[in-house]
Amino acid sequence: MSAVDSVATVPAIPNPFPIRIYWEDTDAGGVVFYANYLKFFERARTEWLRAAGVGQQALRDETGAMFVVADVQLRYLAPAKLDDLITVSVQVAELGAASMVLVQEAWRGDTLLAQGRIRIGCVQADTLKPRRIPSQVLNAIAS
Length: 143
Known about the structure:
Elements: E1 17-20, H1 36-51, H2 56-63, E2 65-76, E3 85-95, E4 99-108, E5 111-124, H3 135-142
Antiparallel strand pairs: 1-3, 2-5, 3-4, 4-5
């Protein structure tokens, strides 16, 4: 199944998130090191939640909830290079009681660079045991 086969009807918070490619992002070949897409996707998810009114540190402080990555599927389609301006999108594909699946894409203009399908689990920070996603998060991302 591709990363975009089962995107749900839950609307995305306004995005995409822009990222400039710096020397530190590239490998010896001058292209973005493949693992850095995970960092780019993480930044976009964090800013997506922030745009929805959910700060992750405040969420942890107020509810004890935090998010962890449980599963990642990535597909690389084209390289990004030094000084490129890419954008990373976030879309909810599945929303459950204690986890969600997000579809993310990295684009340079009209060129799709990478696609990801990331399962994020909600855990209690002090025990790291699964817990329900707090209602304020569900309300923020489903509105």
